Amino acid sequence: MRIWGNIFTGSDQKRALHDIRKIISLQRNVRFTPDEISTFRGYCGLLLLKKYADSAGIANSLSIKNHIVGQSQATPGFYDLAGAFWCLNHTGHRSQILSISENDYVQYLHKQIPRYTNVDGMRGLASLGLTVSQNQRQQTQILEAVFLRLIQLCHAENGLHWRPEPELIEQNGFLSTSEKRENKLIDLGLAHGLPSLVVFFSWLKSSGLVKEPAQKNFLKLATAGTLQSYPHLRRNFPSFIVGQRLRRSGMTGWCYGDLGVGFSMILAGRIWQNPLLVQEGIEIMFHVADDGHTFLSARNALLCHGTVGIAHILARAAEYTQSLKLKNLAVDWYHFTLQRWQEDPPGPEKGLMDSNVGVALSLISALKPISPEWDCLMLLSSPYRAQVNWAP
Questions:
Q1: Which one is predicted more confidently, 82 or 159?
Q2: How large is the average pLDDT for residues 91-113?
């Protein structure tokens, strides 16, 4: 069952193409300083849009000539550099923008990984860790270091728990002051929490680069103790578990909510060969995506917690399971995206997740048979995806 390039038909194809061109036109007015390098907030999203629009043969595509001037003089932050390095390699712009070599970058990672504590950054590094280097020995060393550091940020008690670090918790506007101080706090969002670990370690297994016994240890946690540690939930997963309290933000999207939980179950089930986990993940995703309240809770058309993010994660899940009902829901959510973007189009903000760049990127793959490799930044794919047998 083909997913990408097989979403829109008839007049909706023209409408999607019109919206993509409109977004490209809006992005022509965006300017970046050389140090605005962040993948999610900086100019790397623009480079990705240019690459995929050009690959799709979409007229009036972007030129980056007047968007970025000069080379970066500052040392980018760890998370920014990790995301940017992958994007700049992927789009062929690294030598034009970053002066750091691949060997220097790998050495930099070796020094930073053991001391790094920002959970969001580690999740970002996890999503990029499979694409660090073309040298397999270097790649394996980095993966092992990432694996060990992530495990250090977890603890095993009734399964695998995620203990967010203080800097991430302090930025959270949803939790109360007393809850932020709670020792036992579990994040269940794909953007920052437990599902991101399940997804990363599953992609790690598919790479075959990190060998036993580490994989065996995680196999037990991933398939027996992880999300199934909470059998009383099953639907309407909270954003956080604080002690014994379930805290729900009311947000449904890629970042938080049942879709990310269900996706992590599907991926772990397929790669670890657990069909029951796959089926449960499908049911969780179907239940929430087919719910009218989910449409009302989608805040906008964007990738992070908007309609196109919901459509995109459903399309990837349909691809990995060959589930027709998930594909049909993805089609519905892409149509909702066209509707939402027409009603309330976001302006020419910067970045991938919270601007119209992400909308255009996902629409391109919905319209054209081009696999959205950029969504490894969201943990939804991996360069080792082809090594997995996706047959039902």
A1: 82
A2: 79
Residue pair 356/345 in contact (Cβ under 8 Å)? The answer is yes
Which contiguous run of DSSP H or E holds residue 358? Answer: helix 356-367
Among residues of the chain, what percentage have pLDDT more than 70?
A: 73
Alpha-carbon distance values, 212 to 215, 219, 289 (Å): 5, 10, 37
What residues pair up with 162 in beta bridges, in sequence order?
154
Cis peptide, bond prior to residue 164, ω within 30 of zero: no
Cβ–Cβ under 8 Å, residues 253 and 298 = yes
Amino acid identity for residue 76 in this structure: P
Residue 58 has pLDDT above 60, yes or no: yes
Token representation of residue 286: 């179907």
In 62-190, the DSSP E strands lie at 154-156, 160-162, 185-187
Inform me whether the pLDDT recorded for 232 exceeds 70. Answer: no
Q: How far is CA 153 from the centre of its chain?
A: 20
Beta-strand ranges (E) seen in 93-169 are 154-156, 160-162
Residue 125 CA to residue 84 CA, distance in Å, equals 11
List 186's β-bridge partners, or say none. Answer: 241
